[in-house]
Amino acid sequence: MAAKAAAGRAHRTVADATLQVCGAIGLTAEHPLHRYVSRGFQLDALCGSAEQLEARLAEYLFEKHPTDQALPAIVSWT
């Protein structure tokens, strides 16, 4: 879930930047960018968008661990 959420976030960031650079031509059939942008948004929506997955991950973490304890470390230095 975390990898799919990160990929969805990355796609949104890249799509925003490329559409800013290309302008409205990037959304027309005259430029191939619209294929990648629309396909990326479709893949992001498949099995939950980045926002939905991040919310589910947060719920899972806070359900599993009581509020009086710190969340577990994802990366361990030991």
Summarize the structure.
The chain has 78 residues and is mainly alpha-helical. The chain is built from three helices and no strands.
Share of helix, binned: 55-70%
Number of alpha- plus pi-helical segments: 3
**Distance between termini?**
25 Å
The low-confidence parts are none
Number of strands: 0
Structural class: mainly alpha
- Radius of gyration (Å): 17 Å
- Average residue pLDDT: 82
State the domain count. Answer: 1
Helix/strand order, N-terminal first: HHH
User: Mind describing the biggest β-sheet?
Assistant: none
Strand content: under 5%
- Based on Cα principal axes, name the global outline: elongated
Looking at this protein, list some descriptive labels.
3 helices, elongated, 78 residues, 0% strand
Walkthrough of the structure:
This protein is mainly alpha-helical. The chain has one domain (2-64). The protein is built from three helices and no strands. The chain has helices spanning 2-22, 33-45, 50-64. Helix 1 runs antiparallel to helix 2 (33-45). It is elongated, with a radius of gyration of 17 Å.
